[in-house]
Amino acid sequence: xxxxxxxxxxxxxxxxxxxxxxxxxxxxxxxxxxxxxxxxxxxxxxxxxxxxxxxxxxxxxxxxxxxxxxxxxxxxxxxxxxxxxxxxxxxxxxxxxxxxxxxxxxxxxxxxxxxxxxxxxxxxxxxxxxxxxxxxxxxxxxxxxxxxxxxxxxxxxxxxxxxxxxxxxxxxxxxxxxxxxxxxxxxxxxxxxxxxxxxxxxxxxxxxxxxxxxxxxxxxxxxxxxxxxxxxxxxxxxxxxxxxxxxxxxxxxxxxxxxxxxxxxxxxxxxxxxxxxxxxx
Length: 281
Prior knowledge:
Elements: H1 2-28, E1 37-41, H2 47-63, E2 68-72, H3 81-90, E3 95-99, H4 100-107, H5 122-130, H6 135-145, E4 149-159, E5 161-165, H7 173-176, E6 180-183, H8 186-195, E7 198-201, H9 204-213, E8 218-221, H10 223-229, E9 235-239, E10 245-253, H11 254-257, H12 262-276
Parallel strand pairs: 1-2, 6-7, 6-8
Antiparallel strand pairs: 3-10, 4-10, 5-8, 5-9
Helix pairs in contact: 2-12, 3-4
């Protein structure tokens, strides 16, 4: 009996040592077994956005040893910000860089970020909107996650301005009364109507033609976005209202994001945030 017990104990010890050895080798291997993940990226034709993303893409591929790659698609070929954000949510596009207000329209979330008045200075924007510790930042992340979208970082897109064409001076409220202004959403519509403009909803793709033909007298957007529309040469006057602040976020499809290892997710996030740090329009 003693001999049998000794044999059993020896077997138990041998199996225990083998198990420990196996676990040690697995934890220390450092090798990724997953296939490389390719993320398709597209945004509107806005050079500042592409400069930031191209820098991030290079860093991501290098630091993940090719495990994560960004496939960058030419700007504007997949529609406007709203179209691109919707495509990310549905999974037909991996990643985009879009205005938060348009992301809100596409996803049915964070629409409140386009409301006027809650941020009125750059310092307030840094503290209450762009900081990861702010309530606004955390709530945006939470709402987007609920619809299958991961926000990797947010950039300063500046305050929306009112830029006027046709050599019409706008120094007083009386001078803006009756001018036709393009707005991108209902929030802008109400704001400009109360100021005295005649607002009209219009997609960014239609603005240049409308400005050239005199269908509208001006356009509401950040200066960077207006430049991307190609209408800056038509502008004569600029009104800085500082009523509506705009962020622009880099978002990625949740299902695609989940295919990336935790270590590589950290690399991607860090690269995106670094690229966005100096971004401003």
